[in-house]
Here is the input.
Amino acid sequence: MSTSTTGKKNNSAEAATELLKAWLEAPGFRRLRERFLGAAGPGLATWDWVRLKLPIKAVQALTLPVFRRLGYRFEVQSVGDLKLGLLRRTFHRGKKAQGLRRLVFLPGFGDSPTSWLPVFALLQPALRRRFDEVVLVEFPGSMGLLSEERAFNSMDRQHEVVFDLLDGLRPQVIFGHSLGAWLAAAYAIACGKGERPTKASLQYAGPQKILLASPSGVLADESKKELWLGKFRKAQNEGSAHFREFIFGKEPFWFGAVASSFMGFLDKPEVREFMDSVAEKHLVTDHLGAIGSKTWVLWGAKDGLVPAEWVHDWLERLNHLEPTDQRAKRGLSHGVVIQGVGHSPHLERPVTTAAAVGKILLGQPFQPPTAFWKRHGWHVHGA
Here is the structure.
C-alpha cells in the first residue's frame, strides 16, 4: 500500500514538473521573461533558467536596493578580461586618501556580500564609529551582483587581482570569509615579508588587523590535507551536489530555493579549472609567523568544510614566537568559535555573528560567558 502511494506521488510530481516545463517554454512566457529580465542565452532552456538564473536575479533585486538604502554605492572595475564589483559606503568625507580608516571585506568561494547583508546592516553603527569607508568586494561569477561574469580560473590569478586591489585600497582592516579569509591571510603574510605593497610610495605596510571567518589555507598535516582536498575532489568527480552538505551546521529552510544556482556555479568550467589550480604553494600553514597584523579567527562550531578544531592550528602558529616572527608587533591572536553553526555563520546566526564581529572591530573585551552563552553564543580561545 505504501509503495503504491509513494509511486503515485512520484508520478504526480513528475507530471507536474513536465507541465511546468511546458508552460515555461510557451512563447508567451518566454516573451514576458525576455522583456523584463533578458534572454536566457544560447542553449539555455527556460526551465534551466528558472532553476539556475532566477534565484540569483531575485537575490540581486532584493539586496541591491537595501544596500543602497544603507548608503552603499555599487561600482564595477575591469581588470583585464575580468570584472570586480565594489560596494562602497563612505561614513566620513573630507579626509585624504592616505589617512582613510578603511575596512575591506572579501567573501568566500562562490559567495557574495549579498549573503552578508543582514550582518553588515546590523554592524552599521559599529562601522560608522570605527571607519571612514567600508568596501565589500564582489567577485565575478559568484552568486551575487556579477553572477553573469566570467569567474577566476586560477588561484594565482585571483591572488594577483586581489593583492593589487588591496595595494590600492590600503585597508586598515581586512575581513574575509573562507576563501576570502585565506586571501586576507596570504596578503598579510606578503606584507609582513615586504613583498606587498608593490609600490613603496604608497606609504602602506599592510593591514593593522585581519579578521578571518571560517578560514581555509592552513592544513597542519597530511591527514588534514587529504580530508580537505577530498571534499573538493569528490565534488568534482561525483557532482557538485555533494558539496552542499558541508556548507551549514543546519541548512536554513530557504536555501533549497537557491541551491541549484550555487551548484551551477561549482559546475562552471572556469570554476573547475580554479579548483584544479589550488596547490601546495598557496597554503599559508608555514608562513603565519610573518603576519604583522592583529589577527582574530572566527569559526562555526559545526563547520563541516574546515573543522572548528583547526582553530588551534591557526592560533598555535600565530602565537608561537620565532626570532623572525612579527608577533611582537601584533600581540596575541585569538579565536572565537560560535556555537551551533557551520561554515556559514552569517546565514545561520547573523545576529550572533554581527555581535562577535562588532566586538572584534571595536576592540571590546569578550566577557566570561554564562552557561547559556556557552551553548548559544561563542567561546573565546587564546584570551
Summary: Residues 2-44 form one domain. The CA atoms of residues 24 and 49 lie 10 Å apart. The first strand starts at residue 73 and ends at 79.
